[in-house]
Amino acid sequence: MRKLWVCTLSLGALLLGASGCSKKTDQATSPVQPPTGSIVNGSEPCQSDADCVPASCCHPTACVAKASAPECGDIMCTQECRKGTLDCGGACLCVDGKCAARLNDLN
What we know:
By secondary structure, the chain is of the alpha+beta class.
């Protein structure tokens, strides 16, 4: 009986140890592509990207300083990705001290 218990315990330890160890495989990863899209420069001052927000509630095409942000609380927008807007990949940026918009380049 003791021999069976030792064999079972040894096999269990072996399986437990093997389950936690696996050979790491090198997976090819694609490099992160920098964002693309046209830049629309604005006139409102900023110090960082965080200072800039979309200039309109739905499908914005420009960015403004946070102090000039529109009230969008009760606005409902469509859920489409419109080309040439901040929708689906566009962003507000601070470029040379002014808020700017990087518009999406959807086809």
